Structures are given as C-alpha cells and as structure tokens.
Structure prediction request, 117 residues.
Amino acid sequence: MKFLVDAQLPIRLARFLQTSGYDTIHTRDLPRQNATSDTEINVISIQENRIVVTKDSDFVNTFLTVQQPYKLLLITTGNIKNSELETLFSANFQSLVELFKEHSYIEMSQDSMIVHL
Prediction:
C-alpha cells in the first residue's frame, strides 16, 4: 500500500506512515513541492497506485466524477495539532489498511471513519 500526503497535511504524517513501513511521499517530496496541482497529484496517484491523503474536498469531486485519484482518504478533523493527528492515525491505521483493501474512498474524522461506496 502506497500513500501520497497532500500539502495541507504535515510532512510529519508522511514520515509517520513511512516509519510504519508504507511507501509514502508528501507533496514536498515532489519536484513542484507544495505547488503541485491537484491534477498532477491525481496522475501520480493513478500511475503509482497511491492513496491520496488530503483535507481538500476538491479531490472528492474528482473522485466522484472521474474516479481520480486512485484511492482517497479524506481527513475531516478540522484544525488539530500534529501530535493529535498522529495519535488518530496510530489508533485507526490498521482499520484503514483493512478497509482500503476493499474500498476506495474513506473519510476519517476525530471520532469516526466513514466508508463511501
């Protein structure tokens, strides 16, 4: 399983996913860094089978209309501390991995995970 963490999420999240054993890049790792367009992110996601992790609802629109990106994890926590986000991922990550084996669009808030069919 591979991930691409979008610009509005901390690079710390990408590093957490890497240390958990997953092939993960952050937009800051890309040539255009955080200026990488959503279209470019979608292309990379599809070419490399990467799950896009984002807070950007624009990705929901493209996912629902043209099935891009490859898979989508929408974070709907609002503004929380990086440490709280990492704790949330730690607590839910195994469930996310299992859900992504069967599903393509998942939304994670501070208190729930919603699988969109």
